[in-house]
Amino acid sequence: MTRAVRTSSPALETTVARAVGYSLLAHSFANPDEAAVIAMQEAAAAAAPFLADSALGDLCRFAWEAAPGDLLPVHTHLFSLSSSPDSPNFETAYFSSDPTQQTNRMADIAGFYRAFGVDTGGTGFRPDDISVELEFMGYLCRKEIYAGEHLGAPRVAQTKKAQRMFLVEHLGAWAGEFGRRVATRAGGSQFYQALGIALEDWMLAESALLGVEMAAPVNPVGGWPEPGELSNEPEGEDPQVFGLDEIPVL
User: Fold this and answer.
1) What is the mean pLDDT of residues 127-152?
2) Which of 15, 38, 62, 164 is the most buried (most CB within 10 A)?
3) Residue 10 has what pLDDT?
4) pLDDT per residue as tens digits for the range 64-122
5) Which of 51-55, 156-160, 215-219 has the highest mean pLDDT?
6) CA separation (Å) from 208 to 23, 154, 170?
7) pLDDT value, residue 246
8) Across-strand partners of 90?
9) 203-209 long-range contacts, CB within 8 A, separation 24+
């Protein structure tokens, strides 16, 4: 779990809020077994003091009330690719249906991770999974906090540049659209509706804060259907998310 503490610097406190916000979002999209829900509620407890008035305020409240038995069927409906081809929870689906292009894009994402000491290889989880990308952004925020407290302005600027690049080239280019689709398809689930809205709003806030413009995703050949145009194929299984929040910020 991300340990969040108040700081004497308004700029650093903003970054702390961003770090715990990304961690909460990452845990909220994870496969909701009992351990994952507990981790999500711990992340909500860490985030609430910083984010009560933000897009994630409602999400904190719904996270505290969540139970695995209520979340799992909706999660499967929303994110198992065979039952929900219109809201895939991995980046490459939003840019190409060509396997080679998807592989190349995933390799680019994995290369970005490795440049910052993060290796998702051998875990069984896609590097372009929404939770992995969100947790990586939280990791970059924690790197910025450490740099601000120990390494000085040049290293802070370096981590900020990495955040802008990752948002523009990867997470920010599709997560807002993904959040919109989740909110639209959540049905009667207040938790997943709040989660989708929170993600879309969070991406808009991040774009404004970091001063970047994030382009809309380019749909693959044939296009993803709009929310509501559902597949009748049987439901498949969804992998659990590889969390990056235990990586030390050094």
Assistant:
1) 94
2) 15
3) 80
4) 999 889 999 999 889 876 555 678 888 988 887 778 888 888 889 998 999 988 887 66
5) 156-160
6) 20, 22, 17
7) 43
8) 129
9) 203/171, 203/172, 203/175, 203/176, 203/179, 204/176, 205/54, 205/55, 206/18, 206/167, 206/172, 207/167, 207/172, 209/14, 209/18
**Which residues, at least 6 apart from 111, have a Cβ–Cβ distance to it below 8 Å?**
none
Identify whether the C-beta of residue 24 lies closer than 8 Å to the C-beta of residue 47.
Answer: yes
Q: What percent of the chain has pLDDT over 70?
A: 79
What does the CA dihedral 104, 109, 112, 117 come to, rounded to 10 degrees? Answer: -120
For tokens 């398809």, the residue is 185
How far apart CA 79 and CA 92 sit, in angstroms, is 14
Collapsed DSSP state (helix, strand, coil) of residue 236: coil
> At 90, is the secondary structure helix, strand, or coil?
strand
**Per-domain residue ranges for the chain?**
10-210
CATH of the domain spanning 10-210, picked from 1.10.3480.10, 3.90.1170.40, 3.90.120.10, 3.40.190.10: 1.10.3480.10
pLDDT digits (tens, 9 = 90+) for 181-191: 999 988 889 99
Structure tokens belonging to residue 4: 């969040």
